[in-house]
Specification:
This is DUF2157 domain-containing protein. It comes from Chryseobacterium carnipullorum. Keywords: Membrane, Transmembrane, Transmembrane helix. InterPro entries: DUF2157 (IPR018677). The protein is mainly α and 318 residues long. It has a domain of 128 residues. 81% of the residues lie in helices and 0% in strands. Helix 10 runs antiparallel to helix 11 and helix 11 runs antiparallel to helix 12. The longest helix has 32 residues. The chain starts with 5 loop residues before the first helix and ends with a helix.
């Protein structure tokens, strides 16, 4: 049986005459992790932890000893670290996962290098220039490695670069327009990941990356709707609202089709927040605050009850 879960075994043990030995064997084969799995997890965990602490240590080293280092030492040490970390990637004896983790550490060091360069020469550049250069110079590594954590860093840098550009260069852009563009950008990325995940020719996309992108998209959608409601219905709002409703509807449909409770919990929560903002827009009196509080309690309770019922139904369908 494929994709056997712990709950499935509990149901089988309660409603069948399967022996305890059979259940125990099924748990060991399908649920419990063996020694090799734990060794792999610990190896990757300590490698990631070591590279993370090393990168953090390098950053704090420059921060603490900044005044005592000359320009050559500051730039030279950072460049040597970036080159050394990159050369490790080409060692033939390390596996692909370790290579990608090291490359992710190198990508963080590229940001440190640009930060050091900007501080030494006082380039006077905007913050968005720093993040833009960081993003551009790790693009090739991101594409070649195709490593999910590195893609997450890249997506965060893209969002940060665009946001800082609107704050420091395109200052006349309305805030709602910025939020709407961030929502559309992250939604498109999320849809691309969904299509890649369904393509059997491409390596499976990690669920956590899909969830983070979905959560980012829903967050921007919620912020945009609330801003549009409270700001007196900005001209961008009539365009944003139907798109958000369409995306939310498709998200709920996708959650039902894939039997995924994540979308069926996050999207209704966003809708509850948006409706609460709409009610507060109508009136800010004490009675409206009481009504909003009752609405949140009742709606959240109904969402939880529906999720529990759906989960029970899906478990019986397995």
């Amino acid at each position: 049986m494929k994709n056997l879960q712990r709950e499935d075994l509990h149901i089988i043990s309660r409603h069948s005459n399967v022996t305890e030995q059979t259940i125990e064997r099924a748990l060991k084969e399908n649920i419990y992790h063996d020694k090799a799995m734990w060794q792999k997890f610990l190896r990757l965990f300590f490698i990631t932890l070591g590279i993370g602490f090393t990168t953090a240590g390098i950053i704090f080293f420059f921060a603490y000893n900044w005044a005592d280092l000359n320009k050559f030492a500051k730039l030279g040490l950072t460049e040597i670290l970036v080159i050394a970390a990159t050369l490790i990637v080409f060692l033939p004896k390390i596996n692909n996962t370790t290579r990608n983790i090291v490359l992710t550490g190198s990508s963080f060091l590229v940001g440190v290098l640009f930060a050091v360069f900007g501080q030494i020469y006082q380039t006077g550049a905007n913050s968005y220039d720093f993040f833009l250069a960081w993003t551009l110079f790790i693009t090739l590594w991101v594409v070649v490695s195709n490593f999910a954590p590195l893609w997450l860093l890249y997506i965060v840098l893209l969002n940060t670069t665009f946001f800082l550009y609107t704050e420091q260069v395109a200052k006349d852009w309305p805030a709602l327009l910025v939020i709407a563009l961030l929502f559309l950008f992250n939604t498109v990325l999320f849809l691309i990941l969904l299509f890649l995940d369904k393509d059997k020719k491409i390596e499976t996309v990690p669920k956590w990356l899909t969830y983070i992108l979905a959560l980012g998209s829903i967050t921007f959608a919620t912020a945009g709707m609330i801003y549009g409601i409270l700001d007196g219905y900005h001209p961008v709002f009539p365009v944003l609202a139907p798109i958000v409703l369409l995306v939310f509807g498709l998200g709920i449909w996708h959650g039902i089709q894939t039997k995924n409770g994540f979308y069926l919990s996050v999207i209704p929560l966003s809708i509850i927040i948006i409706i609460s903002a709409l009610l507060l827009k109508i009136s800010e009196g004490g009675s409206m605050f009481l009504l909003v509080s009752l609405f949140i309690i009742v709606s959240v309770t109904l969402v939880i009850m529906n999720l529990i019922n759906l989960q029970k139904k899906w478990n019986h369908e397995k």
